[in-house]
Design a protein that fits this description.
The chain is of the alpha+beta class. It has helices at 14-26, 49-61, 95-104, 108-115; strands at 2-8, 30-34, 40-46, 68-75, 88-92.
């Protein structure tokens, strides 16, 4: 799986979220958003590197304030490999819920490192 993690100032525009949802379906990705306040977080994964990069390019084109690609598209090692539905965009309201979702995917250490919470 190819993954990327993006941090923005916030994610509040429902129009932009709708665009991301359409991109998730178009590129057969799974995406997780922390929306509603600061910070805005976006995680995307796909089995195809090009599709993951295309989704990231869509986000970049939306010109989010303080856009930061904090974990570039790459293959991230998982501790567990749960099934992920392609073409699905999920939203959570808090960073705690986002972290719980990363833990459920076996990516908590990767996520915490990318966010700068821990250092390798």
């Amino acid at each position: 799986m190819y993954h990327a993690l993006i941090r923005t100032h916030h994610i509040t525009s429902r129009k932009k979220v709708a665009t991301l949802k359409a991109a998730t379906k178009k590129f057969n990705c799974y995406a997780l958003l922390r929306s509603g306040g600061a910070p805005g977080l976006m995680y995307v994964e796909s089995g195809i590197e090009k599709d993951t990069q295309s989704w990231v390019n869509t986000v970049h084109g939306l010109r989010y304030k303080d856009y930061q690609l904090i974990a570039h598209v790459n293959g991230a090692a998982r501790e567990v490999v749960p099934a992920t539905e392609e073409g699905v965009l999920e939203e959570v309201a808090t960073v705690k819920e986002f972290a719980a979702a990363m833990e459920g995917k076996g990516l908590l250490k990767w996520w915490r490192t990318a966010m700068g919470y821990v250092h390798d």
